[in-house]
Each structure stands twice: as structure tokens, then as C-alpha cells.
Design brief:
The complex is a heterodimer of chains A (261) and B (281). Chain A is built from eleven helices and no strands. With 261 residues, chain A is mainly α. In chain A, helix 4 packs antiparallel against helix 6 (130-155), helix 6 (130-155) packs antiparallel against helix 9 and helix 10 runs antiparallel to helix 11. Chain B is mostly helical and 281 residues long. Chain B contains 13 helices and no strands. Chain B has helices at residues 6-28, 42-48, 51-81, 87-97, 104-115, 120-127, 133-136, 147-182, 187-216, 219-224, 232-240, 245-248, 250-280. In chain B, helix 1 (6-28) runs antiparallel to helix 13 and helix 5 packs across helix 8 (147-182). The two termini of chain B are 26 Å apart. The chains are: A mainly alpha (261), B mainly alpha (281). Chains A and B meet through helix 1, helix 3, helix 4, helix 5 and helix 6 of A and helix 1, helix 3, helix 4, helix 5 and helix 6 of B.
Chain lengths: 261, 281
């Protein structure tokens, strides 16, 4: 057993590593004048937050991000669910190859994906458009979602499906009445996963969006580089919200399903 | 679903990447794209002959390794120290996982605010009574060693690896450890022969994935990495958007290098995962 003192030290370190950076973001997002070397801002302002409610760049960027992320997650789940199911039914080296193929766009540097995608989407006339950005984001998102469903169907007994079919259910009935209810939670989780992959994406948006599609991360990157810390911090805090919600909801869904013993 | 259609599914998942790789291969060898003039390996040879490229690759690989190592060590420490069911243990586990919600870009931005020349660290040191705080704070952002970059990404990846470590230990640990103890192993033996082997086998796929993410990260590199040496993702971007169109095809050679490194990571990842699944089976 580790001595209690070290446990205490480690706990404090963890707490400050978890809360410190987020606190710094909150303070920066409301900092008015904050010249070096003042430890704290000279005055506080809600200006950047108020702009969000209005028609500022942050507000429109957040709307663009929401649209792109919603489109990406729907597309990724529509394709990734059947793909993951098909891969889970494979055995031996075929599944190995399939999982590796799905993992490649996840592990590949986004910038490497972006170059090839930009040129193909440009030739389709989708460069600099939100649909083009959605298609680009769907590439890594599909990888994540496929791997997710591979795991889900790996655990789900295929005999459930076969049984329904042998009892006379049509293919559609099997999906609607048997698989649908079983998959409700995994689908919700996969939608969240696809959403988050798109929500945080930077290089694919920059190249495929060509600077015209300005999502929240694109604006935040611009604000940080321009030294506009208050706007950058406000945007950064907005970027943290969806994942926080997703994890909170997943946690409460799990607790509701299986009350702690 | 008929078995014949199944390999098509696997292919479909990889299709966009394969098209990208195919395009990059063609563009790097002069078959298509910018300044295409028939097949030639001259461009590949000249890009791979550049010292800048190799220094960038080396910087990317070493900083990614350092960040991954740091995050892994942290995850192992947290998972082994706070395994219990006491309130402190549960609080520690929750705190370790909390930054999971932070995207890479936000992690990088926070570290700019923290470690920049007039960042919070410099202000705090000044407040502590050091007059020349900005001189005292070693440059942690844009520094050639990439210390800010390493710390930011280690912080960002710690929650993911911690979560993985918690689940590995809680599903596979107790039973085997109990067995080892009942066979007469003392606490050190149990850790060395049971806990640690389980932990690293279970963590390895995640560790490989984290390494690949860090090595490919564009947004953290652009905010925190030095201008010399140029990290591989930044170098790829630079060449791809070079005003000199003739140089743009250079980017595709770098894309192939990046994808090649990722492919190695994928192979290692799948091998590690298959091994863990067999072990867990």
C-alpha cells in the first residue's frame, strides 16, 4: 500500500491537473485588461460571452460546427453500423484485416487524409462547402464508429437475429423489433462519438473548407494565434461542452440501467 | 449477409484512405497532380534526401514517444495507487478521467495560456517575487525540445489511458491476483508477476493509438511546436500550401511517410489487440 501522504499528494496533483487548466480558461474568457505581470485580470467582462448570443463570429462558427457535426455523425452511423456488423461476423484474418482497415483512417495523420480528400472533393465541386467538410469529417468518424460497432456486434449474439428470422420475422421486422431496441443505446453512443470526432476536427476543415467553412475549432485556432485570448478561451470552453454532456448523459444512463449494488 | 459481400465491407471502410494513399503515391511519383511529367522517383529521392525532413520526422517521433510515455506512466500510477473503493480512490479516478472532454486544440490553447511568455506561469513566478520572471521561465512554447508540446499532449492523453488502465485492472486483476496470493506470492511478486503483465498487455493497444494520435496532431503542433525543426504534420502542410506550385507535390511524399508510420502503428495495434483478446478470451 502506498503511504497515505503520497496518496494525498497525488490526489492534489490530479485535482489541480483536472481543474487548473479549465479554471484558467474560464478566467481568460472573462478577462478584460490583463497586462503582464498582473496575476489576475484588472477587470472582468462578459463581452465575449455576450457576443455569442448576438451575431458574432463565435456564434456563427458554433452553428456551423453543430451542423457539420450532426451531419457527420448521422452519416458515420448509417455506414458504420452495417460495416461494423459485417466485420464482427468475419472470422480469423479477415476480421483482422477489416479492423485494421477501419483503424487506418483513425490513426492516419489528419493532414495526410486531408490532402487527398481535398483534391477529390474539389473535383466534385464540394471544396469550401459544409457538405464537403461533412464528407471529409466522415472519413475518420466512420473509422471510429465502425470499430465501435465491431465491438458491439462482437458481444451481441448473432443467434438472436437468426432466431427471430426462423420464427418468421422478415428482415425489416428483425431490425425494427429485435435489433432496434437492443441497439438503441449503442446507436446513441455512436452518434455522440461521430459528433465529437467532427466537433474537434481542425486540419480537415481547414483544407477542405478552404478557409470559407469556419467551424468553432478553426475560429479558436485563429484567435489563439492572433493573441485574442478572451475569444479563444470562450470558444475553447464551448468546445468542451458537447463531450461533457455526452459523458454525463452516458454516465446517468448507465446508472439508471444498473443501480449500484 | 452472404460471406462473399463481407470483404467488400472491410474494403469500403478503408476506401477513402486508400484513394488518398493512391493519389499521394501518384502525385509523389509525377503521374498525376501538380507538375505531373511522367513517372519518376526523382521527387521522392530529393524529398527523402532533405535533412529538414528527417529532422522533422525525428522531432515528431521523439516528442510523440515522450508524451505517450509520460501519459502511460501517469495512467499506470493512478490506476495502481487508486484501485480501491474508498471515497479518495473514486475521487482520484474521476479526476484523472475528467480532462477526457477536452479536444486536442483546447489542450494546446490552454498550454499556450499557461506556458507562453506572458502566460500564467510567468505571472505566478513574478508574483512570487522574481523580477525577471519572463527570463526565468524557460521558453516552453515553440521550444526546440517541445517541452510544452509534450506536456500538453501527455495531459490530454492521460485520461484516455487512465480509463483504459482502470478497466483492464478491474476486469482482469482481482481474480488472478487473489490466486497468486493464495499460492504464496508476496505483494511485490503479485505486482511484478500479475498486475504489471496484465496492465501492460491491456494498455498496449491504447498506447500505440495514443502514439499515432500525438505524432499526427496538427493543431497542437501549430500552437506549440518550434519553427525549427518543423514537425512532420506542419512540414506536410507547408509544402502542400507552398506558393511555388512545383514544390507542392513534395507534400505527397511526406503524406506517404506519415501514412507509412500510421500503418506501422496500426499493424502493431492490431497485433497487440489480438494478443490481449486471446489472453482475455
Amino acid at each position: 500500500m502506498t503511504p497515505p501522504v503520497w496518496r494525498g499528494v497525488l490526489l492534489v496533483l490530479l485535482a489541480s491537473a483536472a481543474a487548473g487548466p479549465l479554471a484558467l480558461l474560464v478566467v481568460t474568457s472573462v478577462a478584460g485588461r490583463w497586462l503582464y505581470p498582473s496575476l489576475l485580470p484588472e477587470h472582468l467582462t462578459l463581452e465575449s460571452w455576450a457576443l455569442l448570443l448576438g451575431r458574432g463570429r463565435l456564434a456563427s462558427a458554433a452553428a456551423t460546427s453543430l451542423a457539420a457535426a450532426a451531419g457527420t455523425s448521422a452519416l458515420a452511423v448509417m455506414l458504420g453500423l452495417p460495416l461494423g456488423r459485417a466485420l464482427a461476423r468475419l472470422g480469423g484474418w479477415r476480421r483482422w484485416i477489416g479492423a485494421a482497415a477501419a483503424f487506418l483512417p483513425v490513426a492516419a495523420p489528419p493532414i495526410a487524409l486531408a490532402t487527398g480528400l481535398q483534391l477529390s472533393l474539389l473535383s466534385l465541386g464540394l471544396g469550401g462547402t459544409v457538405p464537403g467538410v461533412i464528407l471529409a469529417h466522415a472519413v475518420p468518424a466512420l473509422g471510429y464508429v465502425t470499430l465501435f460497432f465491431l465491438g458491439v456486434f462482437h458481444v451481441l449474439d448473432p443467434r438472436i437475429e437468426d432466431e427471430a428470422r426462423s420464427l418468421g420475422a422478415s428482415r425489416i421486422q428483425t431490425w425494427v423489433r429485435v435489433l432496434g431496441p437492443l441497439l438503441r443505446r449503442p446507436i446513441a453512443e455512436a452518434l455522440a462519438l461521430g459528433f465529437l470526432v467532427s466537433w474537434a476536427q481542425v486540419p480537415l476543415t481547414l483544407l477542405v473548407g478552404g478557409g470559407i467553412v469556419r467551424t468553432l475549432p478553426v475560429e479558436v485556432l485563429g484567435f489563439v494565434r492572433a493573441g485574442q485570448d478572451r475569444y479563444a478561451a470562450t470558444g475553447a470552453l464551448l468546445l468542451v461542452i458537447p463531450a461533457t454532456l455526452a459523458i454525463g448523459l452516458a454516465g446517468s444512463a448507465r446508472r439508471a440501467e444498473a443501480p449500484p449494488l | 449477409m452472404s460471406p462473399r459481400r463481407i470483404p467488400i465491407a472491410a474494403l469500403l471502410a478503408a476506401l477513402p484512405t486508400l484513394v488518398g494513399v493512391g493519389y499521394a503515391a501518384g502525385a509523389a511519383t509525377g503521374l498525376i497532380g501538380f507538375g505531373a511529367a511522367g513517372f519518376s522517383l526523382r521527387r521522392v529521392a530529393s524529398v527523402l534526401g532533405e535533412l529538414t525532413v528527417w529532422r522533422g520526422v525525428a522531432w515528431t517521433l521523439t516528442t510523440a514517444a515522450a508524451a505517450t510515455l509520460l501519459a502511460t506512466a501517469g495512467a499506470v500510477l493512478v490506476a495502481t495507487v487508486f484501485r480501491g473503493t474508498a471515497r479518495g480512490d473514486r475521487a482520484a479516478r474521476a479526476l484523472a478521467v475528467l480532462p477526457l472532454v477536452v479536444p486536442h486544440l483546447v489542450a494546446a490553447a490552454v498550454f499556450v495560456f499557461l506556458f507562453g511568455q506572458s502566460g500564467f506561469l510567468a505571472r505566478a513566478i513574478h508574483a512570487a517575487g522574481v523580477a525577471d520572471a519572463q527570463g526565468v521561465v524557460p521558453t516552453l512554447v515553440y521550444d526546440p525540445l517541445g517541452i510544452g508540446f509534450i506536456l500538453a499532449l501527455a495531459w490530454k492523453e492521460l485520461p484516455f489511458l487512465s480509463l483504459l488502465a482502470f478497466s483492464v485492472l478491474s476486469t482482469r486483476g482481482p481474480e488472478l491476483e487473489e490466486t497468486a496470493r493464495s499460492l504464496g506470492a508476496d505483494r511485490r511478486d503479485v505486482f511484478r508477476r500479475v498486475t504489471w503483465p496484465i496492465l501492460w498487455r491491456g494498455l498496449l493497444p491504447g498506447v500505440v493509438a495514443v502514439f499515432a494520435f500525438v505524432a499526427g496532431s496538427y493543431e497542437a503542433a501549430i500552437l506549440l511546436a518550434p519553427s525549427e525543426p518543423v514537425a512532420l504534420p506542419l512540414l506536410t502542410w507547408e509544402r502542400y500550401t507552398d506558393p511555388d506550385l512545383a514544390r507542392r507535390a513534395d507534400a505527397f511524399v511526406l503524406v506517404l511517410v506519415g501514412i507509412g508510420l500510421a500503418a506501422i502503428a496500426v499493424a502493431v495495434h492490431e497485433w497487440a489487440r489480438a494478443r490481449w483478446e486471446r489472453f482475455e478470451g
